[in-house]
Amino acid sequence: MIRLVVADDHEVVRTGFAGLLDTQPDFTVVGTAVDGADAVRVCRAQSPDVVLMDVRMPGTDGIEATRQLTRSSSGPRVLILTTFDLDEYVYDAIRAGASGFLLKDVTAERLFDAVRVVAAGEALLAPTVTRRLISEFATMHRPDAPPSSALSALTPRETQVLRLVAEGLSNPEIAARLTVTEETVKTHVSRVLAKLGLRDRTQAVVAAYETGLVVPRSHEA
Fold it and tell me: 4-aspartylphosphate modification sites (predicted)?
């Protein structure tokens, strides 16, 4: 059973998502929250697996709440809810530790799939949307950043795998590209995350762009 919390300052959105999620036999909504501070309190009391977090809320917003909840490796996974896909607030929430984001007009099936993906420990990386968001804003935070010294801890193969993760390839696709087993790719990804102190693949994509390892296509020569 996947335990869920829904945080949104609009009651209709909050109760709507909670009611929809509760229709699934493998989901249980253990709490709702009206702002970021409330979300942190409810999550600490209920220990959910996944939080659906509105990014813009009065008081403590979704970014700060995400930062507090993901500080611990045992904290819940966070899925950001937003109205606009290219939203710097969403990018900041992903940098703070969110595993991905969903638009509020998401279909029910897409919502259910996203929750299951994130609950399983995978990052929600929509190929055309999340990477576009990251590439759009990464250069705003570090316009001309050279590759970070943090990447020096990686082996050449791990660096190659990180670059392919940032380009949006799945583990099977990376395995095929490098002519190795999928299990080998999983091992490389795990080592990359551990060496760089990252929570999941979404954080790896952010790191790859912000260190200059991957250059957004619009900025390529």
Answer: 54
Quote the tokens at residue 215: 């250059």
- Which amino acid appears at position 107 of this protein? T
Instruction: For residue range 27-38, list pLDDT tens digits in order.
Output: 999 999 999 999
Please state the rounded mean pLDDT for residues 118-129.
Answer: 66
Closest to 34 measured CA to CA, from 3, 49, 12: 12
Q: How far apart are CA 69 and CA 47, in angstroms?
A: 10
pTM for this entry: 0.73
- Domain count of the chain? 2
Q: 37-91: per-residue pLDDT in tens? A: 999 999 999 999 999 999 888 888 889 999 999 887 778 999 988 887 666 777 8
Question: Which of helix, strand or coil describes residue 29?
Answer: strand
Q: Half-sphere exposure of residue 65, counting CA atoms within 13 Å on the CB side?
A: 35
CA quadruple 42, 44, 48, 53: dihedral sign: positive
Contact between residue 80 and residue 53 where contact means Cβ atoms under 8 Å apart: yes
Please report the sign of the dihedral spanned by the C-alpha atoms of residue 41, residue 47, residue 70, residue 10: negative
Q: 164 is in which domain, residue-wise?
A: 144-219
- Residue 130: inside a domain: no
> How many angstroms separate the CA atoms of 206 and 162, rounded?
11
